Predict the structure.
Amino acid sequence: MSRFQSSLTVNCPPQKAYDYLADITHHADWSSHGLAVEKTSEGPVAVGSTFATTGYQMGTHTGVVTITELVPGQKIVYESNDDTGRIRHFIELTPQNGGTNITKGFETVKTGLLLTVFRPMMYIVAPRGMKADLQKIKTHLES
């Protein structure tokens, strides 16, 4: 199982960051790769909520994202499942100097053929992508 993470501090309270990031449909706004997201479950975002995704990194991949853990103002965990594999994503929020430190990361749970073949490249691509994601999140939260 491969695990990657990166952190960045933003100038906003943890609850504001949480509210924005827990709504997975916003993922398309800050993803470093092309992505379309649509909520497929009823009701407010909660553990068990699902989203249909279409990603455009190394081809087109459709999948399902399921929220697996929510700790208001502190933590968001969701799993994406598509033909590239199953990946557990996490976002942790901690107050820092009047703002919020956001740690974003992921770990592979099960890899499909594409991720197995390109695993060595993940050590180069993943950190760059996460830093780009965090920078876009910062821009959205501070605007």
